[in-house]
Amino acid sequence: MNRRLLTVLLLAFVIAGGCALLVYRVVGNRMVAAKPMATNKVVAASTNLQIGTVISAADLTTVAFAGTPPKDAILNPKDAIGRGVISAIYQGEPIVDNRLAPKGSGGGLAATIPQGMRACAVRVDEVVGVAGFVTPGMRVDVLVSGNPPGENPAQGTVTKTILQNIQVLSAGTDIQKDAEGKPKQVQVVNLLVTPEQAQELSLAANQYKIQLVLRNPLDTKIAEVRSTATGALFANAGDPAPMHRGGIRRIAARPKPYAIVISNGTSITTEKFPTLEAKQ
Questions:
Q1: Predicted confidence (pLDDT) per residue in 122-169, tens digit
Q2: What is the distance between the alpha carbons of residues 82 and 58, in angstroms, rounded to a whole number?
Q3: How many Å apart are CA 120 and CA 135, to the nearest integer?
């Protein structure tokens, strides 16, 4: 074999071996540096858990969670058993502490009431109230109508907004939304209020007529609403108000012209002159 060809082949083998060794070392270092990510076992729901459910051992399972587990995640099933669900948890979802009621509070409606708040039942009219149009989680304003003590009886019934942006805890006996979000006819609605608001609702319910009005859940602004009296609705009922494009316009009375009496001997004449307003 030609010595020159042999030299070229030998040099090619040396270069190839050097490249292979270099690649092996680079890949090996990266594999050593890339340590397997640690996993943690967290407690998760084995089935869908609705609001008010008291968790049992059969409702729980454990799943491996790569990396840092969620904040306040429950790692021991004993910390979740016997506690009520205050926010819906879905199958396979890790259970966190703030989605469960405190220990010993049980389940149902009571478990969904935050500390410092109260659930106040309000009877609603099936025709004029929001009965049949409200579901748990919605937001409402509370209106009260009646004759305030000490006011002028001539003004009639007065309606006032006493509470705004109040959360509905339950409609009838339901504390969670229907699967299709369909409302149903109810006579009692439980509202989430402060103790002071609960006193106002109780007093209003015993003395006057209460009505609830729905509002957009994203609209959290508290509006300044003035009271409305029956007398104010008909304050201008006797005034003529002909219809005009763009609304109602009153026709102003035409000003009377000036009159001057001219006496010329036995002849008496009267001259009328228009006012400046009439000319304009």
A1: 887 644 445 556 778 888 899 888 888 776 666 778 888 999 999 988
A2: 11
A3: 16
Q: In a 10 Å sphere around its CB, with 0-12 CB exposed, 13-18 middle and 19+ buried, how is residue 30 labelled?
A: exposed
Bridging pattern class, strands 158-171 and 139-146: antiparallel
| CATH code at 36-112 | 3.90.1210.10
Q: DSSP character for 187? A: S
Our CA angle for 163, 167, 173, nearest 5°, is: 120
Q: Which long-range contacts (CB under 8 A, 24 or more apart) does 265-269 make?
A: none
Give the integer Cα–Cα distance in Å for 128 and 126. Answer: 6
Computed on alpha carbons and rounded to an integer, the radius of gyration of the chain in Å comes to 40
Separation in Å, CA 236 to CA 144, 154, 212: 25, 15, 29
**pTM across the whole model:** 0.56
Q: What's at 256, amino acid-wise?
A: K
CA distance 222 to 245: 34
